[in-house]
Amino acid sequence: MQRLFPAAETAPADPVELDHWLAREYAYPSRPWIRANMVASLDGASAWKSRSAGLSGRADQALLAVLRALADVILVGAETARREEYGPADAHPNLTAARLAAGLPATPPIAVISRRLELADSLLDRQAPPGSETLVITTRSAPPAGRRSLEDGGLEVIEAGEDDVDVREALRVLGARGMTAVLSEGGPRVLAQLQRHGLLDELCLSIAPRMVAGDAPRIVNGTEEKLTELRLTALLEADGFLFTRHGRHPDSPVGGLVPD
C-alpha cells in the first residue's frame, strides 16, 4: 500500500506495522466526527450481485477492519445488514489493545436503523463482548410486538423519529452516550440521509478496479437531489484499488449535527 496524496509515502510491508500506520492515517479528530465508508466499481456500482463484498478485495477488507477498530459505533441500515449478513464486529488482532487502553469495548457496537424491526438473524448473536452489543434504532411508531421480541432477546431498542427514523436524533442519542466517532457503512439510503441533512464529515470511498454495468445502485440513493461540495484530503493505492478520502469543503459549516 502507498499514499499518493497529500505526500507520497510507502506504507510498511509488515502487516502489524501496516495496521498501525493506517490507524494513524485515519485517526478520528478530537471532536464528533461522522465518517462513511463505501466501495464502488469504476462505473459507479455499489454492489455486484446485490452485495458490496463482490467488489471488495484483500486491501479493502484490511482497511475496513482498521476503520471499525477506530470507531465508537458502526451505523448501518437494516436492509444492508440483512443483505451483507452482518454480525457483531470482530476484534482487531493488532488494534484491540489500544481500544481497551482507551476504555472502549473490544469491538464497537453495531447500530442498526430499522423502521419495521426486521433484523438479520446474524445480528442476533449473543456472543458479542460486553459494550459491543447490537443497538436497534427505530421509530416511536414501530411494531410493539417486534420491539418486545428484540428486547426480550437482550437487544437495546432506541427511538429516534415518529414514523421514519430521524438520523439527526439518532446521532444525538448516540453522541450523548459518548459514541461520537461514527462509522457509517451504508447502505445507500442511510448515506443519502446523512448527506441530505449535512451530517457527513468525511467519505472514505474504495474504488475497485472492476466494472459491473447493469442497474446496480450508486453509493448514495435518495429521493431528493442535493449538491454537496467535498475536497480530497488523501489518496491511497493498493492492489489496483484506490482509497479516497473526501472531507467537508472549507466553506462548509463545521460538521456533525448541523442544521438543515
Short description:
The protein has 260 residues and is of the alpha/beta class. The chain has seven helices and eleven strands. It has a single domain, classed as Dihydrofolate Reductase, subunit A.
Please render the helix and strand layout as text:
Layout: E1 2-5, E2 9-10, H1 15-25, E3 33-40, H2 58-70, E4 73-77, H3 78-83, H4 96-101, E5 110-113, E6 135-138, H5 144-152, E7 156-159, H6 167-176, E8 181-184, H7 188-196, E9 202-207, E10 230-238, E11 241-248
Parallel strand pairs: 3-8, 3-9, 4-5, 4-8, 5-6, 6-7
Antiparallel strand pairs: 1-2, 1-10, 9-11, 10-11
Question: If you had to describe this structure to a student in words, what would you say it looks like?
Answer:
There is one protein chain. This protein is an alpha/beta fold and 260 residues long. It has a single domain (31-212, 228-248), classed as 3-Layer(aba) Sandwich (Dihydrofolate Reductase, subunit A). It is 25% helix and 22% strand. The protein has helices at residues 15-25, 58-70, 78-83, 96-101, 144-152, 167-176, 188-196; strands spanning 2-5, 9-10, 33-40, 73-77, 110-113, 135-138, 156-159, 181-184, 202-207, 230-238, 241-248. Strands 2-1-10-11-9-3-8-4-5-6-7 form an eleven-stranded mixed β-sheet, with helices on both faces.
